[in-house]
User: Fold these one by one.
Assistant:
Number 1:
Amino acid sequence: MAKIKHIAISTQDVEATARFYIEVFGLKEVGKVDSPGASGYYLTDGDLNLAILNFKNDVVAGVERGKGYSGIHHIGFQVESLNDISSRLDSAGSKPRDDVNQALGVGHGARQGGNVEVKYSGPDGVMLDVSETGWVGTSPLPKAAHA
């Protein structure tokens, strides 16, 4: 079973938003990002990674929202197999977000840092992010029970 391991919030003030989640809920900072696509923080509760991001351009943010959008941007699921989940997403009518994947330099195959993430369209305009390796600060997937 896939597990929610990552939620990304797009914001115009990464400092204030990160401070809120740290001070109110006790989340821990486990990383910072300042890439050509976004700047922000990675926070964790020990099980889930919460990205607080300010997107620097509309392509990376996804044209339907753009870089000025504030709110939940995408939800990340850690899965056992990208191939299996790709088939299930395709059957459900969810298509890869090739525009965003290309802008970020992600997709099926090796990625810098060892993480493989692929963005897909989801229902209600929510972007989905699937990964076999998870995100910094998250707990591992439980071992599959073999009969």
Number 2:
Amino acid sequence: MVVPKIVMDTNVLISALRSRLGGSYQLLKMVGQNKFDIFISVPLILEYEAVSKRLIGQIELSSTDINNVLDYICKVAKHNRIYYLWRPFLPDAKDDMVLELAVSAACDFIITHNLKDFKNVHQFGLDALTPQQFLKRIGG
């Protein structure tokens, strides 16, 4: 069986940190369980950190808790450097960063809640799916 390769958009991580209900949290719980390979880059993990730390005081997690989540993602994810840029391709430059990582790592899927922002990624051999759609696809 071929293990799907994914990049998780920041909005999926934030949704998982906000609530233990839903596909985003289920997907985050599955990171590191060999159901899929998740890819990160330095710019993406820095964005994960910056956006998640803004939640402190709004969610039950502390800065240490968030650091532990991010450290775990860094430990189990596959790291990829990006040597080329196509900016701008998508409406949001931060989404371009996700697309560039997915293409550079030869991923299969971008997991996001903003499907409309990633509607043209099929040109790169990628599919954009919500966490729920991806979980159905892998049987999770």
Number 3:
Amino acid sequence: MDEKTMERQLAKAFLAERSEEGFRQMYAHFTPSLYRIALRMCKGHTTTAEDVIQEMWIRAIERISGFSWASTLRTWLTGIVLNCAREQLRDQSKNSPFLDALPETVSSPTLFADELDRFARQDLVQAVEALPVGYREILILHDIEGFTHQSIATILTITPGTSKSQLHRARQALRETLNHKSPRGSK
């Protein structure tokens, strides 16, 4: 069974009876990927990401009967997640508890390879979190979650060309930030 058919069956099962079981099936199917997006948009803050998911499901359930199937259900739900995340980010301070916990410098000159990898990942996470929201959204949706430019265009109500150019700019900004952090990239 293809993804679209499964999505339609999940929605139809829920709408037929508005049953808790129907909701649980939709929740179990969609929430893991939606939570990853929310977590990345909320800069790793789990409580905020959980709030985003809760608000997203409240809005989705209120509006699902009017969903037109012009896109996939996953695409529609992702759009709601992004809107909820934007609202949460506007309401919260700019500092992420996750980032505040990272060390400023590395004290030991003899790190193991896995520790170096961990610091490289932390640099990447910090660089992604530092991107402007629009760049971060497109980078997460395309490069991490695998959405096509057409799907991103639908989610963000932009053109596929805008999605492509924003992704290019996001990658450029990411490279610049990472090169600036790298000892080889600093001047």
